[in-house]
Amino acid sequence: MAQRGMPSSAQRVLEEALGMGLTATGDARDTADAVAAEGAYYLEQVTITETPEDDYEYEEIQDDNFSIPEGEEDLAKAIQMAQEQATDTEILERKTVLPSKHAVPEVIEDFLCNFLMKMGMTRTLDCFQSEWYELIQKGVTELRSVGNVPDVYTQIMLLENENKNLKKDLKHYKQAADKAREDLLKIQKERDFHRMHHKRIIQEKNKLINDLKGLKLHYASYEPSLRVLHEKHHTLLKEKMLTSLERDRAVEQISGLQETLKNMEIGHSYYVTETKVDYSCEKKNTPEGPTQKSLHEAREQNKCKTKMKGNTKDSEFPVDMQLNPNLNVCKENLSPAKFDYKLKNIFRLHELPVSCVSVHPHKDILVSCGEDRLWKVLGIPKGNVLLTGVGHTDWLSDCCFHPSGNKLATSSGDTTVKLWDLCKGNCILTFEGHGHAVWSCTWHSCGDFVASSSLDKTSKIWDANSERCRCTLYGHTDSVNSIEFFPFSNTLLTGSADKSLSLWDARTGKCEQSLYGHMHSINDAIFAPRGHMIASCDACGVTKLWDFRKLLPIVSIDLGPSPGNEVNFDSSGRVLAQASGNGVIHLLDLKSGQIHKLLGHEREAHTVVFSHDGEILFSGGSDGTVRTWS
């Protein structure tokens, strides 16, 4: 074996590898990089023939080359390795903290070189290096492609880290399992509780069903008794009437006798005839006192009225109704809708809240009703009071002008509906028959009928000529809050607290159709003056528009949460006004859908109505005032 000369840099690398024993992986890589950078050096094997020592010519070796004397190679390496081991042991005993380096696994060629040097296998090392660098120089093997030798310590660290991660995961899984177990127990307890609650509710339901069945049977047993009591009530009313007539006759007899005795005491002689119960047998020449005379006149008037009532026939509902004149008005002739109303005047008319405001059909006159039992007629625009009506014994709820404008109908909490002559200002007729407060009233277009709705869940149609109730409308299951005749027809609209609207045929008293959609009590409902549209509002401020012909809802507008107390159309039917419980007057543009607000009421707004030309708007509030907007 002959060793070729190696450059000094390669030789230094080799010395470092021999001196340090097992080098760090980073040093091995630096060595490989240096060798790769300056060129590949390898040992060449040469066969030496035996020649005489005198004839052999030795090559000259430069002084700067490093050489090891033959025979001392193994001893020097062994001494050096021993010194290195002693140094390492010393360092470990001193526990010197060396600067930490990132441990990088060694490459395979460095590992082999270090191993062969450590084991003293120099000839094997030379063969390996010669073949290895020859392969690198030829390009058969790349320097970095062989890979690294796995480090046991690194593997141990990786395994420990993996073990720690697995332990952490196991801990988390245990915690999750414990939490899931607790949740399961909690859910099981809740399930048992709800199951028990469900069973209890079923038991209560069955108990209520049984109670309802019992109540129905109990109620059915009362019906015959109620019928008998009703008949007895009518009988007692008749007896009461007869008793009152007998009492009046007795009072008349006593008054006549007292007057006769008084005249006899004064000294005047009168021929006193025998007084009989039957006044049809009285003589014409019998002298009468002033009391007898007034009673006789009153009796004659009552007889005349009774005869008139007996001779008066019931009014007939018109068959051929005239067309609604508002339908013939062309859209081109209509003035543009107005929304820019401003508060103009405030009229303080009532001590208590205003419940209704109505406009005269032909004159600039306004009527307001209040909870102070009064109704007042105002002149517009000055607001001067022209007439005050007194007669109801409880609050007034609604009022309505006769189509001719010479009469007024009012409804009240005293369960009556009164008709008033506006020329004289006195009550000409009182309708009694409702069992509770009357909420609303309206005139038929022919002027012969008045309809009213009441808290007793019924509505009634009254004949103004025969002065009696023509029909009672049954069907609602709660208070009937509003009633309205469709213009120039026999159709009647009612709105109830049972959240429904009903359409009735006034001639037969039958409900033709019901409209459902409101979720709360309906406070007011009205027909549009033009077209076939119905507007309604409820106790939560929701206003709905309905198609009267298709009997379907068109749109729903939520203006709540304050209740909508009343709705009203203007004369064109394009603007809808709503009086709200928060004091705001909402104006809805039916064409564009925009909502305008009028702010001016200090408290709740109860009623709203337009003038016939739409230029003025009137509203009444709970503060007893009527406000005009223009």
TrEMBL record:
Any single Pfam family the record assigns to this protein: WD40
A cellular component annotation (GO) from this entry: sperm flagellum
Gene3D superfamilies according to UniProt: YVTN repeat-like/Quinoprotein amine dehydrogenase
Domain of life: Eukaryota
WD repeat start-end pairs: 389-430, 431-472, 473-514, 515-549, 598-630
Subcellular location: Cytoplasm, Cytoskeleton, Flagellum axoneme
Keywords: Cell projection, Cilium, Cilium biogenesis/degradation, Coiled coil, Cytoplasm, Cytoskeleton, Flagellum, Phosphoprotein, Repeat, WD repeat
Keyword presence, Cytoplasm: yes
Coiled coil: 156-190
Biological process per Gene Ontology, one example term: cerebrospinal fluid circulation
Listed CDD domains: WD40
InterPro entries in UniProt: WD-F-box_domain-protein (IPR050995), WD40/YVTN_repeat-like_dom_sf (IPR015943), WD40_PAC1 (IPR020472), WD40_repeat_CS (IPR019775), WD40_repeat_dom_sf (IPR036322), WD40_rpt (IPR001680)
Record text on subunit structure and interactions: Interacts with SPAG6 and STK36.
Function: Necessary for sperm flagellar function. Plays a role in motile ciliogenesis. May help to recruit STK36 to the cilium or apical surface of the cell to initiate subsequent steps of construction of the central pair apparatus of motile cilia.
Protein name: Sperm-associated antigen 16 protein
Organism: Callithrix jacchus
Chain's gene name: SPAG16
